[in-house]
Each structure stands twice: as structure tokens, then as C-alpha cells.
Specification:
Length: about 525
């Protein structure tokens, strides 16, 4: 497929969810009302997200895999000439996997919502917010102008806030408010850094800035830019100690909100570090890289210890909260890979990004199914109620949960293994002029974190799937995995295996693009 055709496909991918969001608020056309208007609008969400997924697959099929470092499907039009802001779109080997992952997870969330009607608000509003969230996320990975990146980055905040506040559970309003306050404050700081780069360099074009490789920015300017932009992105990652909004948001969010928050929104922060900070301010990034690595490994250990504490009997740990804390640890490996400033480490970070989206998305779907059947995500209650038997009473659900857990702990042959391993390989031999003893320490601490990860995940599998036999209630008949759940979960499980057994599928796309972003280093 030629680049002009791909250009129209990419434009359709970004515009269709916006049009779908508007359409969701309108009355359904005659003949498409279904059993009731609510069913019709939820079906509309499935249709639009399904069409976007098909278009992203077409985009991937037409992508020139022989030149993944080159921007493809590009559009470059003047938008606000007075501010030198252009409507610049395009994808390369770094952004393409994230675009496909976003479309896939949003479609699966729409299917989930169609089968299990969201409670707590209007289905029209729910579908419109879901599609607006998809559009903003896709745009974040496809725009090539700093101001457009900021606008797309901010677009996702409002729909996610309302998804948590209106359709969540528990202390949803406080959790939603904390989410938006943290991310908005980080975004304000990031905007100052983006403006500084654009004004000093004379352009907001990300491709031109990356090609320039920081030569038009002084060292002091780069330091300020990395600090400001990095803080805004670190909140979204989330990096320790800016992570405290995440466990509350996940615990309160509905299943679809948790899937998209962990599977897609967290990736926007790390993507920004790779796409913007690494190539545009390399000197500033080199100065801050050891500090980023230190925060990363602290996050790995902290997230794992928090999960281990929540997994212990008697601590009243919540399963959703535990998986949220596990994301702090897993994203720590992504940050460690970026902090190495090496092709190996950055490729590992990008691989871990996709793997985390697949595995954690699957885990949150499974936790939602556990809550539906057993009435709680409290680990102590689950262990007592299920006895010997998420395996015994719902064997397929128990087996899938165990699969997701071992994938998350990094079992070789599954997607979670490669990203963490490559990040540690990058830390073992970091970029020149970075202190190797310091990074060897980071490697050792990260390796210890993998042992802690295995400890808490295996503890969770034992308690959730096998339970505490002494306190087990009498078994009751429960539905095992249903047909629509196979539709939702199978793609994630299959892709987890494919990426684990055939990592070249992703690394073949990212490696040339990373080499270009690092200036051939």
C-alpha cells in the first residue's frame, strides 16, 4: 500500500472515534434500535471501535517493515502559522504497536460493556467518553508536533475522570479527583518544558527536533526541558514517588477503566520520554539518566514489596489494588531501560510497554470476572470463599488467572520476559560516560525485584485459585468462562504467547527506529 493510501487510513483511525463519540449522543437511526436504546448505543460503541481496529490492522499490513525508522502515513499541513503549529501526523516502528494495542484494548472494552451494561450513568455518555478516550490516546501516538502532542495527551484526562467518577465503585469521586489533579499538575509543568523547547529551537515539529538532535538547544535549556517534560510524563507513567494516584484510581475504576488505564494510558508517559526527551534533549537526558535509573529501581522494589504485603493473609489486600501496585514495579523496568540510553535498554522498554499492556489488560478483565462471580476482590474474603477452587469451581477462569500471573512475573516464553531482560541487559552495559558501577547496582536491585515479583504473584495464585482450605465455604455452582469472555480474553492471551515466542515481531519494528532516535548510537 502506498503512503498516500496509508495517510488516509491513519486520518480515518484518528477521526472515526471522534465522529463515533458525537454519533453516540444522537438518537439511533430507525431500524438500529435493538431491544432498547441502551443496547443500540452500546452496539454502536462495538461497531465504531471494531472499525477502528480493522483500520489499524490495515495500517499495520500496509506498513513498510523494511524501513520502520521512516515516518509513514504522514500528513504535514500548516494549522496555526502564527504559532508555528502544524498538523503533522505519522507513524514509525515505535508508535505502530501502540496504535494497534490501543485499538485492540478499546474494542475489547466495548465488547465487555455491550455484554455487561455499565451501571451508574447513561450508556450514551459512557460510549461517547470511551470513544473520546480512544481518539485522544491514538492521537498521542500519531501526532508529530509538540503542541498537538500536549492537546492529545490532555484529551484523555476528562473521559477517564468521568469513567472513574460515574461508573466506578468504592471511593470513586475522591479517586477520580486525585487522578485528574495529579495529572493536570504534571501536565502544566510539561507544557512549560514543551514551550521552552519550541521557542528556543524555533519549531514544534518533533521530526525536525529529533533530526537536529539537540544541537539548537544549549545544555542549560536541555536540563530545564528534561526536568519539566520529564516530571509531567513521569506522573502519567507513573514513576515512584509520583505514583500514589494510581492504586486508588484502579481500585475505584470499572473494569474497562482499569484495562485502559493500565493497558494504554500509562504507555503515554514512557512513549513521550522515548519520542520527545531522548532525541530532542540528549545532553540533558544524559545528565538525568542515573537519577531516572535510581527512581526506576526504587519503584521496582517498592511496587513488589507493596504487592507482597497486600498478598499476605490478614492484611485485607484488594486484588485490583495489588495489580495496580504491580504496574509501578513493571513500569520501573520500562524506565530503567530508557535510563540506560542504549538501543538494548530502550528496545527492552518499548517491548515491556506492549507486554505490560497485554498482560495487565488481561489480568484486569480476569479480576472483573472474579468479582462478578465471587462478589469481592478482597484477597482474604476470596481465599475464604473460594476454598480449593477457583480451579475446582471455575477451572478455566482459574487457569487463565494463573497464566496471566506467570506471564506477569516474566516466565520465559511469554511476553513479560523479554522486556525486563533487555532492560537489565541495557543496565549491565549502559551508554558511554554513564557510571557502570552505578548501573550494575541498578541491575542487581532490579534482579532482586524480579524475585519479589515471583513471590507475590505465586502467593496470589495460591490464595485466589486454591484458597485457604480451613476457612473455605461449601462449593457452589458458578459459571466458568463464558463465550463473550473468550472473545475478550483470547486475543490478549494469544498475543502474550506470540510475543514471548517470537519477540522479533516487535523488536524488528522498534530497533531501527530506536537507533535513529538515538542518533545512531
Amino acid at each position: 500500500m502506498n503512503d498516500t493510501a496509508l495517510q488516509y487510513v491513519l486520518a480515518a483511525v484518528l477521526v472515526l472515534p471522534l465522529l463515533g463519540a458525537v454519533g453516540a449522543l444522537l438518537p439511533p437511526p430507525p431500524g438500529l434500535k435493538g431491544r432498547d436504546p441502551d443496547q443500540a448505543v452500546l452496539r454502536h460503541g462495538v461497531t465504531v471501535t471494531g472499525a477502528v481496529l480493522v483500520l489499524t490492522i490495515v495500517l499495520a499490513a500496509g506498513f513498510d517493515n523494511d524501513h520502520p525508522a521512516r515516518m509513514q502515513a504522514t500528513t504535514n499541513l500548516s494549522w496555526i502559522p502564527a504559532l508555528r503549529i502544524r498538523l503533522h501526523l505519522g507513524i514509525d516502528g515505535i508508535s505502530l504497536p501502540l496504535v494497534v494495542l490501543t485499538a485492540l484494548l478499546t474494542f475489547l472494552c466495548a465488547v465487555h460493556s455491550y455484554v455487561r451494561k455499565p451501571e451508574g450513568g447513561s450508556p450514551k455518555a459512557f460510549v461517547a467518553l470511551l470513544l473520546l478516550l480512544e481518539s485522544g490516546t491514538l492521537a498521542t501516538f500519531a501526532v508529530l508536533d509538540l503542541m498537538l502532542f500536549f492537546l492529545a495527551f490532555e484529551t484523555v484526562l476528562v473521559p477517564m475522570y468521568f469513567l472513574i467518577a460515574r461508573w466506578g465503585g468504592g471511593d470513586r469521586e475522591r479517586s477520580a479527583l486525585r487522578f485528574i489533579v495529579y495529572t493536570l499538575l504534571g501536565s502544566v509543568i510539561m507544557l512549560l518544558g514543551l514551550l521552552l523547547v519550541g521557542v528556543k529551537a524555533g519549531t514544534f515539529d518533533m521530526v525536525a527536533l529529533a533530526t537536529d538532535n539537540g544541537s539548537s538547544l544549549g545544555h542549560s535549556t536541555q536540563l530545564i526541558a528534561v526536568l519539566a517534560i520529564g516530571i509531567g510524563l513521569a506522573v502519567k507513567v507513573p514513576m515512584w514517588p509520583l505514583h500514589s494516584w494510581l492504586p486508588d484510581a484502579h481500585t475505584a475504576a470499572p473494569t474497562t477503566g482499569s484495562v485502559l488505564l493500565a493497558g494504554v494510558l500509562l504507555k503515554m508517559g514512557t512513549y513521550g520520554l522515548v519520542r520527545i526527551v531522548l532525541p530532542i534533549a540528549p545532553s540533558g537526558m544524559h545528565t538525568f539518566a542515573p537519577y531516572l535509573g535510581a527512581f526506576a529501581v526504587v519503584g521496582i522494589v517498592y511496587g513488589s514489596l507493596a504487592c507482597l504485603w497486600l498478598a499476605r493473609p490478614g492484611n485485607g489486600g484488594d486484588l485490583k489494588r495489588l495489580i495496580a501496585y504491580s504496574s509501578v514495579g513493571h513500569m520501573g523496568f520500562v524506565l530503567l531501560g530508557i535510563a540506560t540510553l542504549t538501543r538494548t535498554g530502550v528496545n527492552g522498554a518499548l517491548f515491556a510497554n506492549i507486554a505490560h499492556g497485554l498482560i495487565t489488560g488481561l489480568l484486569f478483565f480476569l479480576v472483573g470476572a472474579v468479582k462478578e462471580r465471587y462478589g469481592s476482590t478482597d484477597l482474604d474474603l476470596l481465599a475464604g470463599r473460594t476454598g480449593a477452587a477457583v480451579y475446582g469451581r471455575t477451572p478455566r477462569l482459574g487457569g487463565l488467572f494463573a497464566f496471566g500471573a506467570v506471564a506477569s512475573l516474566g516466565l520465559p516464553g511469554l511476553a513479560g520476559f523479554w522486556g525486563e531482560m533487555l532492560a537489565m541487559f541495557g543496565a549491565f552495559k549502559p551508554a558511554p560516560d554513564l557510571s557502570r558501577p552505578t548501573y550494575l547496582t541498578f541491575t542487581a536491585v532490579a534482579a532482586f525485584g524480579t524475585l519479589l515479583t515471583a513471590a507475590y504473584l505465586l502467593t496470589v495464585v495460591r490464595r485466589v485459585c486454591m484458597g485457604d482450605r480451613e476457612t473455605a465455604h461449601s462449593p457452589a455452582v458458578l459459571a466458568d468462562v463464558r463465550g463473550h469472555e473468550f472473545v475478550e480474553w483470547t486475543p490478549l492471551a494469544v498475543l502474550t504467547v506470540v510475543a514471548g515466542l517470537w519477540p522479533a515481531v516487535l523488536l524488528g519494528l522498534t530497533e531501527p527506529a530506536v537507533r535513529a532516535l538515538l542518533g545512531g548510537r
